[in-house]
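Course assignment 3, question 2. Fill in each field.
Student: A.L.
Task: Predict the tertiary structure for the chain below.
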Amino acid sequence: MTKAILIDDEPLAREVVKEYLEEYPDVQVVAECGDGFEGVKAIALHQPDLIFLDIQMPKITGFEMLELIEQRPGVIFTSAFDEYAIKAFETHAIDYLLKPFSKDRFKKAVEKWMERKNLSEARQQVQALLETAPVSPIHSERIVVKSGSSIKIIPTADVIYLEAYDDYVKIHTSEGVFLKNKTMHFFESSLDDKQFVRVHRSFIAKVSEITKLVPYEKDSYRLVIKSGESLPVSKTGHVKLKALLQL
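Answer field:
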């Protein structure tokens, strides 16, 4: 039996998926969710094999929801997302249904998913999609993290700096430090480059937090921020800072 969860803020859209799934007696819908917050909880509770996921939803987007899940199920996107984003799905062989979709198109997507035997490969493809899909403007305004059993939305205005930490990135804020399962490259490309600058392979600093740039040993520098902490600056980071701060 395949366990499935429907995550879409439109009840009618969920009804359409349920109706189409009636032709698949081996697929059991174990939960329906109206937003990403509910989706994260339902996935943790039911451990589904497959989710039907909308992208543009209230509270957090479908992409942001997936970023919070460590053991991701198979995903079939059901969205009215634009064509540019669809190209990203095609690149990584992710199943998607562009609303409004027909029963035949739905059947092809489900059967394509069922033919997949390597779930770990499918999960890797979802991770690749999350790293390379067109960045929504919302990514430059906030970072969504999991804090214990709750979900926290951090405005980028509250971020002091970011630090690489194994497979995660540490988000340093005035409230504390939070972990995000993303790469430094993702944040470098998604954050506003007028507000944040990558000063080192392991650090991204907020421009408004910088107080001074000081020499450190031979031909190297460190960046001092308002909290009094100092961050290492690479040669490339030094060039960026000089241009940005007009030094």
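Instructor remarks: The chain has two domains: 2-135, 155-245. The mean pLDDT is 87.
Grade: pending
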